[in-house]
Fold this sequence. Notes:
The strands form five sheets. The protein has a three-stranded antiparallel beta sheet, covered by helices on one side. It has a three-stranded antiparallel beta sheet with strand order 4-5-8, with no helix packed on it. A two-stranded antiparallel ribbon has the order 6-7. The protein contains 14 helices and twelve strands. Helix content is 45%, strand content 15%. Among the domains are: 12-63; 67-146, Tyrosine recombinase, N-terminal domain (DNA polymerase, domain 1), CATH 1.10.150; 178-292, hpI Integrase, Chain A (Orthogonal Bundle), CATH 1.10.443.10. Helix 7 (191-200) runs parallel beside helix 11. The chain has helices spanning 41-63, 67-78, 84-102, 112-118, 127-146, 175-184, 191-200, 204-207, 256-267, 285-296, 342-355, 360-367, 372-383, 387-405, and strands at residues 12-16, 19-27, 33-38, 215-216, 223-226, 229-233, 236-240, 250-253, 303-309, 312-318, 325-326, 329-333. The mean pLDDT is 86. With 406 residues, the chain is of the alpha+beta class. The termini are far apart. A hairpin with a 2-residue loop joins strand 11 and strand 12. Residues 168-392 form the Tyr recombinase domain. Keywords: DNA integration, DNA recombination, DNA-binding. It holds the Pfam family Phage_int_SAM_3. This is Site-specific integrase. InterPro entries: CB, DNA_brk_join_enz, Integrase-like_cat_sf, Integrase_catalytic, Integrase_recombinase_N, Integrase_SAM-like_N, Phage_Integrase.
Amino acid sequence: MAKRKRAIPQYGTVTLNGIDYYRTRVQNADGKLVALYARTPEELYDKELGALEQIDNDTFCRKSPTVADYCEKWLLMQSVHVRATTLIDYTSKVRRHIIKELGQMRMADVTLDDIQLALVPVSEKSASVYKSVVILYKSIFRAAKESKIIDNNPTIYLTAKGGGIPQKDKAVLTDEQAARLLDAIQGLPPYVFVMLGLYAGLRREEILALKWDSVYLDVDCPYLTVRRAWHTENNRPVILDELKTKAAHRNIPLPVCLADCLKETKANSQSEYVVPNRDGDPLSYTQFKRLWQYIVTRTVKERFYYRYEDGKRVKHTVTPVLGEKAAHNGKVIYSLDFEVTPHQLRHTYITNLIHSSVDPKTVQYLAGHESSKITMDIYAKVKYNRPDELVRTMGGAFAQWDAAQA
């Protein structure tokens, strides 16, 4: 079968430096006419096709929105069908880890290499943060591809595997450590926060959003209701009535020590919030960090500070000694030889429930876990991480087996 010849357009000719050329003009992405030259019509035709394809690509790229513009549009689209708390989390991660790194680039210009370079700072975060940022990248560029904003999705081979810093198993506070912590901050701003974490197992955002209208102290069995969540936007507190999951909405019985603490606190409070700032309002993020510093400054963890000496910035190291007073503040005594995080308080509460033989479904409810898998993973690690108890349990089981066989 004979190969069909392609129809070559009729081109004009021009002589340059004594040489005859075929010539045509095409309009580029800026709307300007650009001349193309070749010695034969076939060569010029190939040049014209290549130029037109490149112009189409350039035009497409110029019409493509910036990463910042499309990300903001994507966030707006998500607001229709995700919870307010989820949207806040999305917005924070997208602006901090995607827009900040690639915001000025055109969506159509972004390559996998660009994204992987942008993920380098995120790799210094926890593995869970890294994974969630990767998922956001993939979701945003997949949506752009489906909407024909881009021709190719650069994230199809992007993976979160191996990224970020794996979280260590969370240590819990021993009874002795919890007592020392409470003794160290007795009468200080973080005391009520710590009590709510240790004896009610509330998350940080649940404690800082807790109002007195959710605390029932004048009943036979005092309890509190979790119905609000604290978040911050640009360091300003935002109190949401919508919780992240349905399971987060729960009633928690108060042990006597916590009920007594809250009764005393309420009697001296003029705020509607249980843990307010000096003005009676919910804490900002910066104010919460200051609140937690009361605990950090009482630990023996080595720390650094800088001071200008003779016009130079000099680094100084502080190595606290347990039992001694802080050199800069005689009211501070280094009384904690262990570190404490807000979430550690909650994890200690859940662990104590399990050690007290509370059944898994009740633990799941009191912890506000939506998935039973989360509860059971913790339950298994805690319940079966005591070799002495396992030996007694197994010994009893085999004794019964031996008796049955006799």
